[in-house]
What we know:
Number of strands: 10
Bound molecules: N-[3-({4-[(3-aminopropyl)amino]butyl}amino)propyl]acetamide, zinc ion
Low-confidence stretches: none
Order of helices and strands: EEEHEHHHEHEHEEHEHEH
Amino acid sequence: MVSFVWSDDCLRHEPGAEVWVGTxxxxxEVPARAIAIREALLEAGAPEVPAVAHDDMALLAVxxxxxxxxxxxxxxxxxxxxxPSDRVVPYVFARxxxxxGRVPAAPTAVWARPGLFAYDTMTLIGPGxxxxxxxxxxxxxxAVDLVTDGERVAYACCRPPGHHVTRSLxxxxxxxNNTAVAATELxxxxxxPVAVVDIDAHHGNGTQELFLDRGDVLTASVHVDPGAGxxxxxxxxxxxxxxxxxxxxxxxxxxxxxxxxxVREAAxxxxxxxxLVVALGVDAAxxxxxSPLEVSAAGYREAGRILGELGLPTVVVQEGGxxxxxxxxxxxxxxxxxxxx
Length: 341
Ligand code: SP5
Ligand code: ZN
């Protein structure tokens, strides 16, 4: 069984809620997700590898230092200001057209600062958010270490997830783009091109934007059609595809056959790469509360097999997946498929 990288610090992020259409709704991206995955992996006999601390080189190659500094200090500043919300939440957004593209002023009000970096209201910051997000980067980079040291496949049990984060904007329950940092580090160490195949139920918009027009990192994403009303709403359409990016939006209710056909297409797109990052969201699962793709556990195992058949050094990075009863099983099935070849 594939080794998995773990850090207890990933449990320190407690979103508390998601502000959605102006109301606080129940948080979906909760610590119990990672605990459930770890239990299933241990049960399946996967060796556990503790995350090793890594410096900020790869992180700062991906993200704007201003975003990183904001995330590092946001909770401290917010709690000092004694605001009525127990989580950092934006209320005014520094959209680039507001300043005609000019750099917006650094706001003096602490409660205005999140609007420089957040693109939604669902992605709250609390006491352990930074520690968990930074630990997830170490988890991803430790999995890269395993692969560059000779393991063909390694799994990074990252939490919070990351694929919705761009160079300077966070959202979609994500703070730092673990997948993009892993891909960047693989590129540095093994040379390019590196491919990212994202099978989370939502479009990997952050990863797409980070590697736009770059021949050295190919990105492919299989996800529910944003045109059918699904997050991230503004991106993930087939028309965004080009020589280095492939979007495969699927209709709600697609199920195994259509989903696996798209995974095969994504795998073919990734085939020329020297290394692979699988952005593994298991929220395409039938029964997942956040997506309608209706994929079975056998479907995820087959997706793993298809991607494993590429024979590339492969880092698997955890993204979404919200059905606590089955999330662990779906991850184990995927890794089993990846390891069969
Ligand atoms: C990593 C990942 O899978 N992020 C997905 C975030 C998308 N969430 C969209 C939520 C839309 C509204 N949900 C209503 C229920 C609120 N609890
Ligand atoms: Zn997702």
